[in-house]
Amino acid sequence: MPDPGVHCLADVERAAAAVLPADVRDFVGGGSGAEVTLDANRAALDRVLLVPRVLRDVSRCVTETSLLGCPSRLPVALAPVAYQCLLHPEGELAAARAARAAGVPFTVSTLSSVPVERLVATGADVWFQLYWLREPGRALDLVRRAEDAGARAVVLTVDVPWMGRRLRDVRNRFALPDHVRAAHLAPGPTAAHRPLAVAASALAAHTEASFSAALTWSSVAELRAVTRLPLVLKGVLAAEDAVRAAECGVDAVVVSNHGGRQLDGAVPSAVALPEVVAALAGRCEVLLDSGVRTGTDVLRALALGARGVLLGRPALWGLAMAGEEGVRRVLGLLALEFSDALGLAGCADVPAAARLRTVLDGRAPRLARTPSP
């Protein structure tokens, strides 16, 4: 059972840090380069100040919404994260069950240590995240497999031609233990399981050998043509790319810098979000990823124009802390915080949150997109 002293997601992270090996803790918590963008994600969200409304009936705050056509009790989905059996023996299976209990979607990674079929069998609304492989036919086969299994959406990650240089992993010579495998790829040990002779990340070497750096808009069109599922592009920061995605028939974009794990120095997701929302003008859904740690962050994302957020590291800390129960605790705390923030901001539901005004860095309030009485 989780420590009764756990009252927020930062407490969960501290509890997880106490039980994880140092190299696994660094693998989850670290970013690329000097970790400038990792830190900037958090700072950017903290600079978004909300302008609450008063004298509104908030005796009942409704947190439900829909994401990519999936009903969700919160404007939150669990983000795709690889190799979750590093954190707990049940890995993604425990996280998917927790997502189902919380009524939010679960995104399974191409590099999941549990196959998509078992995750769909939990009853969760499962989205399948795709890395574009060096053999595009294999990538499309994975999409068909996920669709046949009952996945509800395909999330194509577009910001990883190769893994960013993550110095914590390099210094630790990080490699996977033998019992943790990519269930959708090679069945046996791979280069990711063999520490390199020099200071380097075996996992980065393996992904560079597996992923294609030739992912282009024609690849998106090819993927769009082979699946009837909602298609999401994750890793969009430029408004021009978001518009191009909508023109390609994409159903949603995730404004994300991969949690500060790819290009160090990239713009924080919360800073990029308003421009992407304005450029798209409602042509597809917009989700925010990277740095979300509180229910107030969820409210901030909605006020900046996002439909919802993806939650990554906090769910992993919960998984490490107490397996399925730990992830449930994380989602329960987030739900409590979001409902509290929603009501204190004078919002009775999620659409009202989208009409809140914000102050950025002390500048004049950003006007709500839809004036409210």
TrEMBL record:
**Organism listed in the record:** Streptomyces alfalfae
Q: Does the keyword DNA damage apply?
A: no
**What keywords does the record list, in alphabetical order?**
Flavoprotein, FMN, Oxidoreductase
Q: Which residues form the FMN hydroxy acid dehydrogenase domain?
A: 1-363
Q: Which PROSITE patterns match?
A: FMN_HYDROXY_ACID_DH_1, FMN_HYDROXY_ACID_DH_2
A GO MF annotation of the entry reads:
FMN binding
Q: What is this protein called?
A: Alpha-hydroxy-acid oxidizing enzyme
Cross-referenced CDD domains? alpha_hydroxyacid_oxid_FMN
Residues given in the record as glyoxylate binding sites: 131, 166, 261
- Residues bound to FMN: 80-82, 109, 129, 157, 234, 256, 258, 289-293, 312-313
Required co-factor? FMN
Q: Catalytic residues per the record?
A: 258
Does the record carry Thylakoid as a key word?
Answer: no
Query: What's the family?
Result: Belongs to the FMN-dependent alpha-hydroxy acid dehydrogenase family.
